[in-house]
């Protein structure tokens, strides 16, 4: 096969391939071994699915309904290109008895449209707006796998990990923010075996690229007074996106300074910044002034002013996005924007306080909400793998053997007395 991302090579018999794939799927689910002709992209996805403890008999959970779904879709960036998706794919989906689907970066379906009879069939497996179709929830499938590997992928019949989904074939491509490169979600075409063709994969790729171009046109660079966008969650060195389209990777100290200044538009004095940044009182104002001078050279002379130190342009950040969504009660949207702790390696006292407050607020909302998929996402993340309270909440709503085993191990570790001979 010339392209490993295409499901069937030219001339292949779809019926025979389905039969062979079903045998391979049964062998994998029974013994964990992958046999030919399973493609590497599918084999890797099956392994990830098994590692996430997805059952081949699972069904999709609907996380968002009614008003919650409407509010989330309305604020999602891909809402702006839904008219384009419908224009390019709507007729193709309806005439071919297929479905057009769009998911967010967590594999949650936002829109599912197309042929009425096909939509009715899809309801039987909860392939509906608001349902979670990430790999960690539903195993190998085109929209979930596309956002997992961040590239276009085609999934044919018994390549799907969930047996209920194996009568279907789908192709999906990721869509990114044209400014920041952030993954926004994926566009998908789902239907019968006829979609197992290189053209369907190329089609969704072209539609995704068109959507990114449209997003770039819909969000032109401001002519004057460009703001800044700061990405500081889950990274030790923040990324600064300017209105002119520049991407600046900041040093750790500059990352801390920009986070603090962005939270204090009124400005901070040198003494206030010293208290925010340094636990060691021996650090002199001269050291801080030198660091601020270097940051001014990075940002430009008109961006950072002094007496007090303040930013002269508006700054938005992924941190404030999560805070806004939490404050409005949009917990699912807040969790989707939370890509990790704020500057996790920072020892600056003020940064540590903000980091702890944000994480505590989000995890408290997740525990109170009791959504099993959101709790599982947190529990299986690097920052949540040892979070006993979250694992307890997850066990209460999803008491599977792996969850209960992990909870027992964590409970034992935290109750065990410290080793008096440890060095």
Automatic annotation (TrEMBL):
Top-level taxon: Bacteria
Keywords: DNA-binding, Transcription, Transcription regulation
Record-annotated OmpR/PhoB-type domain positions: 245-311
A Pfam match: GAF
Membrane spanning residue stretches: none
The protein, known as: GAF domain-containing protein
